[in-house]
């Protein structure tokens, strides 16, 4: 396997990691605000705060890792995406900035400030929507290279059913993943009232998720038949994903094994995400960048891979420590520490 | 109009984000070391005041770190959004330290999370103190990595350029370019200095308001001592930086010093103005001091700005940036030395109001020195984005919407800046140190942090 394949695999794993941890975080913000509106915040907001406080910064680093890595492994991506994404990218930055800082302001400063909670909840849905634009663009047809540089075709983007279906999928998946995680976390904390509530959310958001996935597939077949065909060739990946989806929903429905249910959710998205990614290759950005044409030089590519491995040796034990202390320490989860 | 000019607006937007980010970045690099020192001394001397100091500093830092993280994410993305051509080359050659920087953040973020939420979870408090070490290592390493990238922009090496394609890449040589050692040293030392000085400012202001608080007295002694040590380190590093410039980037030093003709035994020009003929007036001249600053020898020859082609000369106003930075450095060094003197001489009262006011100015001034220093360093590189290889105009995006984004980001940073100040004030006003101390230490009751 060439270093460019290692590179894209590594980056894709990190994007997948971001997808999971950020979804939990984004969705939790929305649920916290929703609970406040419906006066149920006393039931679950403590639970959310206990999980989120120690990890939000780590979540952000996953994202930074992805975009720094893509510039490192595929410098052409900086050139094309950089020019095309000025507006959507800036909007995403602003939303992320508002979210991160107001979370800290709320959490460490003024408790229960209504405006902060609202910003925190609303950005949780808007950020996935704006970030998903980058994936939409990668399908081609929305970017034009002229003598004046690279242009994003806003008309095409805003009128494309595909781009809207991706936005919709991003939002419902966030809510689904998050509710599934909170269900597990509430059961660990042995917090029955919160569990009842988040379990309902989890079941509620499962059907829109699967519907949105199907719609996106259909829209893709219209927008980019070639990619669709490659995805169909990988049908088994998506089949496994659906099987895990059903397993997860069944477990939650039957009210048992919430931990396994969340693992099933992770696998559901793992297979769907890697199925999508694998069928996307060789393109990074159709038709301008392919995995081979856009890759950095071999020396740099190999150096990055080495550094990456060394970095993992440092990070995995530290992450493990973090999880031991906050996620899997039953006393902490229950609020005894 | 310049508002439509994407190059100008990209420069302005980059400046805006960096000037704002560096405030929080500096504090993020320097405060962990102060916290660690306070906690260590607190445990060793069994001094609860110092331990409380560490806790309260940490709590304040959570807010500034949050803003540092989000503005850092902003500049990280903006580098690609605003300077796509530059990042295309940079991606090929200098992505290694950028990549490693993220690992440093990761490392720091993980241990900061643990440090914050485990104050009372260990029987032996030293274990908790140990957790501060990876936080220091992580934040200082991230400053190191990002500074190597900036050094690379000043003295690019480690690749060959063949039209638009780069060949012969050597990531290690690119990272350890001639500018790296002095720049890293100066940036890290000045971050430590500024953080210590800001904490000293807080202690001094509190003492002016409430005479005699033991907590704030101890805080003052600790922070001013640290300020003094870091001020010496910063000055040494600054001197080395000037020597580096004289050798590798003479046009930046010459523009900063208004040194136009190559000569030996060159004078150091402080402040002053330029008349219509481009001659220096109203300046303080220190004979031969520039030669000494540049080469450590009063008679050495220093290259003048006239050796550089006109269109490659940096703007001359950076002279003021340099002078202000150095003046502030000397002032901070002097004030902290004076305090130490008053403290050691038993007859003198180191807590007199004049001295306290002088100390109180050191924090904000040091932060200004950081901004002046960076503006000097970055403007002094103009017109290049990669010195000698690519100009700023070649690196910029061609999108027409940068002006609009500039307005949006101005609004964003205003909101973040105001929010940060409001929250920090509220956090410490509502919980004064003395009250918290009484709360926390009379009974051994396991009080919980940050609930
Ligand atoms: C508290 C902040 C602070 C203080 C007191 C000083 N500096 Fe500084 N200086 C910086 C903060 C700074 C900085 C923000 O860290 C810069 C900007 C870029 C860099 O490399 O460091 C800088 C840049 C910088 C440069 C340009 C380096 C380059 O572009 O490669 C020189 C020559 C000096 N400084 C010299 C000095 C001297 C002789 C000082 C005497 C005391 C001094 N500085 C005090
Ligand atoms: C162009 C210049 C810079 C870029 C691209 C950049 C990038 C970043 C990014 C992406 C983050 C957020 C990291 C996270 O998510 O945790 C960040 C935060 C930070 N940056 Fe910068 N930075 C720049 C300049 C600087 C400088 C000059 C310094 C050091 C003096 C610095 C030190 C920091 C620190 C300490 C943080 C806080 C991170 C934390 O505490 O977790 N940065 N920066
Ligand atoms: C954090 C402290 C920093 C501050 C306050 C700062 C300040 C500035 C200023 C004032 C400019 C505008 C120069 C001009 O166009 O006239 C600039 C440009 C720029 N800086 Fe820095 N800088 C900092 C650190 C860095 C670092 C660490 C990097 C490298 C990664 C960097 C990369 C750039 C780039 C790419 C530009 C645009 C090109 C240019 O105008 O030369 N900066 N910065």
Summarize the structure in words:
The complex is a heterodimer of chains A (337) and B (451). Chain A has one domain. Chain A is 83% helix and 4% strand. Chain A has 13 helices and four strands. In chain A, β1 and β2 form a beta hairpin. In chain A, α2 crosses α3. The termini of chain A are far apart. Chain B has one domain. Helix content of chain B is 70%, strand content 6%. Chain B is built from 16 helices and ten strands. Chain B is globular, with a radius of gyration of 23 Å. The termini of chain B are far apart. The C terminus of chain B is likely disordered. At the A-B interface, α2, α3, α4 and α12 of A face α2, α3, α4 and α15 of B. The structure holds CIS-heme D hydroxychlorin gamma-spirolactone and protoporphyrin IX containing FE (2 copies). The site of CIS-heme D hydroxychlorin gamma-spirolactone has 29 residues of chain B, from α8, α9, α12 and α13. One protoporphyrin IX containing FE sits at the interface of chains B and A. Chain A: It is found in: Cell membrane.
């Amino acid at each position: 396997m060439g270093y460019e394949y290692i590179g894209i695999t590594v980056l894709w794993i990190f994007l997948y990691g971001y997808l999971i941890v950020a979804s939990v975080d984004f969705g939790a913000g929305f649920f916290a605000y929703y609970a406040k509106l419906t006066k149920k915040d006393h039931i679950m907001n403590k639970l959310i705060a206990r999980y989120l406080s120690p990890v939000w910064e780590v979540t952000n680093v996953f994202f930074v890792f992805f975009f720094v890595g893509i510039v490192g492994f595929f410098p052409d991506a900086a050139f094309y995406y950089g020019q095309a994404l000025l507006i959507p990218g800036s909007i995403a930055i602003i939303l992320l900035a508002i979210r991160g800082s107001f979370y800290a302001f709320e959490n460490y400063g003024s408790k229960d400030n209504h405006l902060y909670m609202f910003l925190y909840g609303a950005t949780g849905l808007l950020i996935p929507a704006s970030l998903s634009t980058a994936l939409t663009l990668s399908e081609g047809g929305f970017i034009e290279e002229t003598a004046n540089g690279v242009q994003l075709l806003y008309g095409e983007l805003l009128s494309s059913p595909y781009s809207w279906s991706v936005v919709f999928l991003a939002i419902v998946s966030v809510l689904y993943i998050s509710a599934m995680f909170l269900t597990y976390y509430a059961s660990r904390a042995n917090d029955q009232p919160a569990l009842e509530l988040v379990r309902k959310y989890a079941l509620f958001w499962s059907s829109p998720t699967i519907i949105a996935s199907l719609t996106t597939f259909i829209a893709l077949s219209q927008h980019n038949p070639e990619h669709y065909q490659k995805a169909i060739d990988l049908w088994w990946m998506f089949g496994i994903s659906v099987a895990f989806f059903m397993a997860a929903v069944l477990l939650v429905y039957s009210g048992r094994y919430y931990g396994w249910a969340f693992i099933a959710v992770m696998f559901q998205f793992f297979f769907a995400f890697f199925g999508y990614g694998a069928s996307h290759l060789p393109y990074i950005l159709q038709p301008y960048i392919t995995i081979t044409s856009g890759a950095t030089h071999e020396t740099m590519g190999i150096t990055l891979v080495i550094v990456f491995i060394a970095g993992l040796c440092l990070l995995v034990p530290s992450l493990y420590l973090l999880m031991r202390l906050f996620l899997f320490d039953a006393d902490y989860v229950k609020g005894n520490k | 109009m310049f508002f439509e000019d994407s190059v100008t607006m990209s420069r302005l937007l980059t400046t805006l984000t960096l000037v704002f980010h560096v405030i929080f970045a500096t504090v993020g690099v320097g405060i962990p070391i102060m916290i660690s020192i306070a906690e260590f001394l607190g445990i060793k001397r069994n001094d609860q005041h110092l331990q409380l100091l560490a806790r309260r500093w940490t709590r304040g830092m959570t807010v500034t770190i949050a803003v540092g993280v989000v503005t850092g994410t902003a500049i990280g993305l903006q580098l690609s959004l605003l300077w796509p051509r530059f990042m295309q080359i940079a991606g090929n050659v200098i992505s290694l330290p950028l990549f490693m920087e993220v690992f440093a953040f990761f490392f720091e973020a993980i241990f900061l999370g643990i440090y914050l939420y485990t104050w009372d979870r260990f029987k032996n408090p030293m274990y908790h103190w140990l957790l501060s070490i990876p936080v220091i290592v992580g934040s200082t390493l991230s400053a190191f990595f990002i500074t190597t990238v900036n050094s690379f922009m000043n003295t690019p090496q480690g690749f060959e350029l063949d039209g638009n394609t780069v060949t012969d890449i050597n990531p290690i040589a690119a990272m350890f370019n001639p500018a790296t050692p002095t720049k890293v040293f100066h940036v890290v030392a000045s971050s430590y200095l500024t953080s210590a000085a800001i904490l000293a400012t807080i202690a001094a202001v509190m003492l002016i308001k409430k005479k005699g608080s033991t907590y704030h007295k101890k805080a003052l002694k600790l922070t001013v001592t640290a300020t003094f040590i870091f001020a010496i380190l910063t000055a040494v590093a600054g001197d080395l930086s000037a020597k580096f410039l004289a050798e590798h980037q003479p046009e930046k030093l010459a523009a900063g010093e208004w040194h136009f003709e190559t000569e030996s035994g060159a004078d150091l020009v402080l402040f002053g103005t330029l008349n219509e003929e481009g001659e220096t007036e109203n300046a303080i001249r220190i004979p031969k001091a520039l030669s000494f600053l540049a080469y450590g020898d009063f008679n050495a020859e220093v290259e003048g700005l006239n050796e550089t082609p006109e269109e490659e000369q940096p703007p001359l106003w950076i002279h003021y940036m340099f002078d202000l930075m150095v003046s502030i450095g000397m002032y901070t060094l002097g004030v902290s030395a004076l305090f130490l003197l008053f403290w050691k001489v038993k007859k003198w009262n180191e807590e007199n109001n004049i001295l306290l006011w002088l100390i109180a100015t050191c924090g904000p001034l040091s932060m200004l020195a950081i901004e002046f220093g960076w503006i000097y360093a970055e403007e002094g590189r103009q017109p290049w984005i990669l010195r000698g290889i690519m100009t700023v105009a070649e690196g910029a995006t061609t999108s027409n919407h940068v002006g609009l984004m500039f307005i949006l980001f101005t609004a964003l940073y205003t909101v973040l800046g105001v929010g940060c100040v409001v929250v920090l004030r509220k956090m410490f006003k509502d919980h004064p140190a003395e009250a918290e101390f009484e709360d926390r230490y009379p009974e051994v009751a396991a009080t919980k942090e940050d609930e």
